[in-house]
Amino acid sequence: MSIQQRIMQSRAARRGGARGVAPASNGSTSTYFGEKTPTKSDDRPAMPRVRMRDRRHRGVNPRPPFCCALDKICRGRHAVPRDRFADESAPLRAFIPIGSAMKHSRTAKRVAVTGVAMTSIALLAACGSGGGAPAADGELDLSPLQISAEQEAELTALYDAAMESGNNEITVYAGHHDEFREIYTQFEERFPGLTIVPETLVGAELQTALEAERDTGQHNVDVISNPNADRYAEQGFSEEFKPATYVSPEWADGRIAQDQFEDPAGFYHSPWALLFSSGYNTETMDEADLPANWPDFADPKYADQVTFMTPSTPGGMQTVLSILLQSDLVDEDWLRTVAAQSRIVAQDQLALQSVSSGEYGIDLTSAATSIRKAVNDGAPVDLHMLENPVVATEKWMLAANAPSSDGGKLFLSYLFTYEAQEQALVTGNFPLNQHEDLESPYGWPAIEEIDFVHLPSQSTMREEIDNNQDLFQEITAS
């Protein structure tokens, strides 16, 4: 069965009541951020391709951790089974930027279908109350988003257009969905009648699916989340769009290269960053005895206590080490020393499992999101914040010729709101423009307050990763 047939079958199953997440084709949990971005399969030329914050009081109670908040889904409104994400694993992610100049694409015009949409609005307005229920007069309640009146008007217009179009399913292609599931649910509650359809596609599968949709004209995807967003944008798979709620993080100037948080051509934007530091077993290790910084890991006293994923294959470790090596915080000799006194495993998930079981005390590099998931699953682990952790960014964009273009625009705009930021913090992500009234539930500082290693441009990262391949192979083999 082809990838496109699988996607179409999945969508048909959902319409019949069976909703699930398409499994990733690659079992490695590190594939997403560290994917090997494919090249185009033919020789066709690439297709052309406010700082405003509302100070109003939110007026709602803080949400519980998402493992509990999932029980608050309105079944009658959405008819979403509890196991919508049951097949989803929670990968650690790494970042490998690949891309070049952007080219323009345009979305095809659609014919609006209003009958079903208006009926849906009427039925949904009568659904049970809750944090995401529309107001008594049928209007949306957007006050929890903490956005300006102008932004509320724009989001309301997008919602109305999405409902009137009849295309009420918003399909998201991403390499993972687990940490976004509560954001999807809250979006559906905030905008009744719209449904997020998660599809797990990455690397060669994603490339093949996008090419097939373009060749056949049968477009399925509305939103794409991928660290190599520029690679797909330059092929004409995305449409230029700036979310109504997006504000460029001014503090990031000189600390994060611009193309890591927003596309200079306007095709993708990043709502939050992923932070990499060290994970440790809280039962076998005292945090006061852990390394304070990256160079400390070369100390002989940490021999046989550290494990990490091989950097010879795409993944979080490859990304982190490439960022560190180009920063001059460490050098090749440091890496050889650390590798010689540590255990190197095939996958980042295996490294965290070894720490969780107590076999090893320290995971050299752990993503904050993966640590939080492990803690929620009962593992005796925690994140150790080093002096100079590493960050990478999530990149989201509107797909070209999206069937639910207005719904996709609405969802992308939702990602930068107070409500979405709050949930991003719960899962361990770091909003790039964190609302001043929000704090990490784990006591972590806002990202602009962290002295992380400079995140270089996509081109610099590509070059650094390529230059380090022989070294990475060497330490893995030894």
From TrEMBL:
Keywords annotated in UniProt: Signal
Biased composition (Basic and acidic residues): 37-46
Record region (Disordered): 1-47
Pfam name, any one: SBP_bac_6
Domain of life of the organism encoding this protein: Bacteria
Leader sequence segment: none
PANTHER family per the UniProt record, alphabetical: THIAMINE-BINDING PERIPLASMIC PROTEIN-RELATED (PTHR30006)
Protein name: Extracellular solute-binding protein
